[in-house]
Amino acid sequence: THPLKRAYTQHDCVRSGLDAGFVERLTIVRDPDADGNYADAAAHFGTSDTDANSRPVASVAHDGTSATVTFPSVDGKSYRVEKSDDLITWTPVTVTATGATTTYTDPDAGTVPQRFYRVAMP
Questions:
Q1: pLDDT tens across 1-51, in order?
Q2: Hey, is 58 helix, strand or coil?
Q3: Is the CB of residue 61 less than 8 Å from the CB of residue 115?
């Protein structure tokens, strides 16, 4: 079985105000190693889609004043690091990779009692 990724896009005539409707686009996505990460995400983060132990996992180090998020990446690709103090409202920051591992430092992480991070494709 293959999971389906469903996306809706506006047709060009809708954007120009001539019509109302969306075009449905279905894509079959692959997860060959069954690690829960689709092949396109593995490729974007530079991890393997054939080795279940090679997953795009981020780590966070906190020194009391700032926090550093480290994650696998591909040189030149953009990533969206999001931070939240309550897991409801997320603030995105776009980061461009400069190598196989990328870091984002949040300088004001020490000003709040807790902060959460996640990394995604833009």
A1: 455 555 555 545 545 555 555 555 556 677 787 877 777 777 778 887 777
A2: coil
A3: no
Is the pTM above the cut of 0.85?
no
CA distance 118 to 6: 22
Helices (H) and strands (E) in the chain, counts: 2, 8
Nearest to 75 by CA among 45, 47, 54, 50: 45
Cα dist. 94→26, 67, 103 in Å? 27, 16, 12
82 forms bridges with which residues in the sheet? 92, 118
CA distance 10 to 60: 38
Structure tokens at 70: 């480290």
The tokens of 9 are what? 């896009």
Q: Which of 27, 29, 26, 23 is nearest to 11 (CA)?
A: 23
